Amino acid sequence: MKLALRAEGISPSPTLAIDTQAKAMKAEGIEVINFSAGEPDFGTPEHIKEAAVKALSEGYTRYTPVAGIPELRQAVCDSFKKRGLEYEVADIVVSCGAKHSLYNAMQVLLNEGDEVILSAPYWVSYYEQVKLAGGKPVVINTDDSTGFKLTPAVLEENITPRTKLLILNSPCNPTGAVYSREELEKLAEVILKHDLMVISDEIYGALLYDGLEHVSIASLGPEMKEHTIVVDGVSKTYAMTGWRIGYTAAPRNITKAMTDLQSHSTSNPTAVAQKAAVAALVESQEPVELMRQQFEKRRNRMLSGLRSLPGINCSQPGGAFYVFPNIGGLFGRKFRGQVLNNSTDVATVLLKEFHVAVVPGIAFGSDPFMRMSYATSMEQIEAGLERLKAFTDELE
Ligand SMILES: Cc1ncc(COP(=O)(O)O)c(C=O)c1O
Predict the structure, then answer these.
(1) pLDDT value at residue 118
(2) CB contact burial 277-297 (16+ within 10 A = b; e otherwise)
(3) Which fold has domain 5-43+287-394?
(4) What pLDDT sits at residue 372?
């Protein structure tokens, strides 16, 4: 049976593919240092797991309202309030992970041929989700010379009468770039002038370093709030990737459409996971701060290690748990006789010969780079940096 054109056009997630390859090598007994994963290595904090166990033992096993239990939606409103966002329970839809929230948002916003602006390097699923909704991704390249950030002038140059949506991701996966309030204000002027919608993916909003402040573009005023769908979730902040809870805050008509869509796909997100998410958002935030501090230490170690390697330059990421070094200085050099032409060549040699898994930048639309996650132990980081040094030492 021939598949639908929609299905034939999907590219599988390259980050998950590398992670799977690294895990398969590990299963064969190879000691792989895995810098490819996009999830915290920490376990979910105990009090969150206990809330789930309690919910289960109390028989909390039935369908819930499609948009999520009111208790969780209220907790989401309260957590958004801390970043200057005023929403009511009726503005929130809880879904099966932020990835699902993003999917719902694109499905209800985009018509065939609507243009969606993405700045590269971008998180891989945006591109595919735009296509799946019939939209046309318009990619604007950024690099380390502008801190991987979109400028208002470049944004405006790329707007056409078909442009409907801009996807913003601060802090960013894969670069760790964080937009400041002033930068967002300037982008907001262009967005409002051209009446665009924004999906603001703030899933890494709690993982900021160097004293940086997380600013949501929706907090810049009532008009910007009306033009924004805020996306967040518990995966990264609370080490809850497997629980699959994400959520949106959006204008009412969009919220209603996403709820109706979800009613015909997943119904509600898992009941017991919703109870765990309530505990995550409402109870002590101390575990989050402890994890954040660990991430900051690891980021610093990763940066100093990478910066000491010839041919590699690494800008300082302000958030998330990735570094995105520029490896253009390695291109054209030879490893055991083979010329390294691009980030895929580098990632392949690193995995096959040094058992270090990284994601080539091309997967995010930016070739002279690679993404390394530091959501792994300091011991693994030290060992990985040693192997990277052995690699660069061997280059001719
Ligand atoms: C930028 C970004 N947005 C959204 C997600 C999805 O998170 P989840 O579906 O686990 O909530 C991820 C996960 O890797 C991400 O990196």
Answers:
(1) 97
(2) bbbbbeeebebbeebbebbbe
(3) Aspartate Aminotransferase, domain 1 (3.90.1150)
(4) 97
Find the 310 Cα to ligand 1 centroid distance in Å. 32
Please report the atom of ligand 1 found closest to the CA of residue 39.
14
pLDDT means over runs of 10, the chain (396 residues): 89 77 89 92 97 98 98 98 95 98 98 97 94 97 92 98 98 97 98 98 98 97 98 98 98 98 97 98 97 98 97 96 97 95 94 95 92 96 98 95
C-alpha 384/C-alpha 302 separation (Å) is 9
- Mutational pocket test of ligand 1: of 124, 235, 238, 371, the residue with most ligand atoms within 8 Å of the beta carbon: 235
**Ligand 1 binding pocket includes 199 (Cβ within 6 Å):** no
Amino acid at site 195 = D
The pLDDT, as a whole number, for residue 319 is 98
CA dist 27 and 121 (Å) reads 31
Cβ–ligand 1 distance for 235 under 6 Å, the answer: yes
Q: 46-282: which CATH topology? A: Aspartate Aminotransferase; domain 2 (3.40.640)
Q: How far is the CA of 98 from the centre of ligand 1 (A)?
A: 6
Q: Please tell me the predicted confidence (pLDDT) of residue 160.
A: 98
Ligand 1 atom nearest the C-alpha of 123 is: 1
Rounded to two decimals, the pTM is 0.96
Residue 74: predicted pLDDT: 98
Domain assignments of the chain as residue spans, ordered by start: 5-43+287-394, 46-282
Kindly state if the Cβ of 118 falls inside 6 Å of ligand 1: no
Q: How far is the CA of 168 from the centre of ligand 1 (A)?
A: 13
List, edge to edge, every strand of the sheet that includes 370-373. 322-323, 370-373, 359-360
Pocket test for ligand 1, best of 76, 93, 99, 248 (most atoms within 8 A of CB): 99
E strands, the chain, in order: 33-34, 92-95, 115-120, 136-141, 163-169, 197-201, 228-233, 246-249, 322-323, 334-335, 338-339, 356-357, 359-360, 370-373
d(C-alpha 267, C-alpha 234), whole Å: 19
Q: Is the CB of 97 under 6 A from ligand 1?
A: yes
Q: How far apart are CA 261 and CA 96, in angstroms?
A: 13
Neighbours of 382 (CB within 10 A): 12
Ligand 1, from 173, 266, 371: best to mutate by most atoms within 8 Å of Cβ? 173
